Amino acid sequence: ALVGQGEATQLAVIQQINPLYVNFTQSALDVMKLRQALDAGQLKRAGSQGASVRLVLEDGTEYAKPGKLLFSDLTVDATSGQITLRAEVPNPGGALLPGLFVRVRLEQAQASNAITLPQQAVTRSPQGDTVMVVGTDGKVAPRPVTVGGQQRGQWVILSGLQAGEQVMVDGFQKLRPGAAVKPVPWQPGGAKPTAANPAATPVASSTTTASAPSVSSANGASTAASAAR
Length: 229
Known about the structure:
Structural class: mainly beta
Number of strands: 15
Shape: elongated
Largest sheet: 6 strands, antiparallel, barrel
CATH class of the largest domain: Mainly Beta
CATH topology of the largest domain: Elongation Factor Tu (Ef-tu), domain 3
CATH architecture of the largest domain: Beta Barrel
Radius of gyration: 23 Å
Order of helices and strands: EHEEEEEEEEEEEEEE
Number of domains: 2
Number of helices: 1
Distance between the termini: 41 Å
Helix content: under 10%
Strand content: 35-45%
């Protein structure tokens, strides 16, 4: 190839795609809550090798190879309230390309014996988060809970519930505290229950991972693009 004298002629761009760097953002408020939960002993740091990263592709499938968090920015973007993070993901087959948009599941901490609930079971308001619990007498009562994040479409409940309790999932919006119900087992995607027979799900104790999904852009190692908003 010929290069003209005195001209900055671009011949080629070398771009590394294995491993691939993924730049994404996380709410500064979420980071603060995570640190508070860690300090309070409600959560434990996930693994000795640092936070694990999983990618969800545009078609909803999960990328097979997990990555790892490299670093997070030390400053907060004043306009968005977000902190920029970077992860490294193996890409030996070249399935991920620079500029591809993905969702990130960042596993930063683990909650031992935490409880997960379908998101529609939790009522969120400025006054706090509550669920409708079915007592042993068959009557419903609101219960304040502490939500620690979400895990695969479900809220992670850090406090306020015990394993074995029944929580209303659907059909409780028009019920008043003290109303008697005959709950039926809740099934995802099942028939919508009536107010007389609202759906309830038993609270199960398990070990779950608190995650912080974000919409982000996958970028090659030689590029640095901001996350999609």
